[in-house]
Amino acid sequence: MTLAIIGSINLDQIFAVQQIPHPGETLIADNLAEAPGGKGANQAVAAALNGMDVDFIGRVGNDGAGVGLRQALVAKGVQTQHLVTDEVEPTGRAVIMVEPSGQNRIVVASGANAAVTMDDVAPVIAELGPDDFLMATFESPMQTVTEAFAAAKKRGVKTVLNPAPARHGVPVELLAATDIIIPNEGEATALTGIDMVDAAATAEAAATYARRVPTR
C-alpha cells in the first residue's frame, strides 16, 4: 500500500515574540528558529514515521532551502523522486510569529508550491491502484488537486482531502472525487456555512456536506 501526497513543503521561519506587532511597529524577536514545514510535507513525515510507504509530490526551488528540505524528507523515510526542483520559483517560506501563550500568526509565500501541475502528478497516479491512497491539501493548486483526484478515482485509488487552509467555493468536482475528508472546525464551517459550536452542529454540518456532494 502506497500513500501518495500532493503537498506543500516550506522552510518555516519561527520568531518567538512577546507580542504580535501592531501596524507600523517593529519588534525585536526573542529567538529565531528554522525548520521544515508545509502541511503536505508534515503529513508525509508523520505517515512515514508510522511505517507507511509515502511518495511525496511537490516542488521546491533551485536553492539551498530546497536542497535542505529534500534531505529532511529523505531522512524521515519519504520518497522524493517526484519532488521536482523548479528552475523559476523559489522554495516556499512560512513566517511564523509565536507569543509566549502559544498564540501564533502565520504568513506563507507559496513559491514553487503554487507551480505543481498535473504533469507532476500523473506519473505517480499511473502506478497507483485500489490498495493505495492519494492525499492532498489546499496549499497545492486547486485545479491540480481536482484533476488528480478525478484521475485517481478512475483507477480505484482512495482519495483523502485535508481542506486546509479553509476556503470557500471548493469545486463540486473535487468533492465528488473525495472518499475521505478531514476538516477541522474552521474548515468545516467554510465548507458548509455552519458554525462548529457543539456536537449537534457538527452532525448538521456533516449532513449538509453529504447533501451537497454529488452521488458517485
Notable characteristics:
single chain; alpha/beta; UDP-N-acetylmuramoyl-L-alanine:D-glutamate ligase; six-stranded parallel beta sheet; four-stranded mixed beta sheet; 7 helices; 26% strand; globular
Blueprint of the fold:
Blueprint (H helix, E strand, L loop, with lengths): L1 E5 L3 E7 L14 E7 L1 H11 L3 E9 L2 H12 L7 E4 L5 E7 L5 E6 L8 H8 L7 E5 L4 H13 L3 E5 L9 H5 L3 E2 L3 H8 L6 H14 L4
Parallel strand pairs: 1-4, 1-8, 2-6, 4-5, 8-9, 9-10
Antiparallel strand pairs: 2-3, 6-7
Helix pairs in contact: 3-4, 6-7
Could you describe the 3D structure shown?
The protein has 216 residues and is an alpha/beta fold. The protein has a domain at 2-8 and 39-91 and 111-182: UDP-N-acetylmuramoyl-L-alanine:D-glutamate ligase (3-Layer(aba) Sandwich). The chain has seven helices and ten strands. The strands form two sheets. The chain has a six-stranded parallel β-sheet, sandwiched between helices. Strands 3-2-6-7 form a four-stranded mixed β-sheet. Helix 3 (118-125) runs parallel beside helix 4. It is globular, with a radius of gyration of 18 Å. It starts with a strand and ends with a helix.
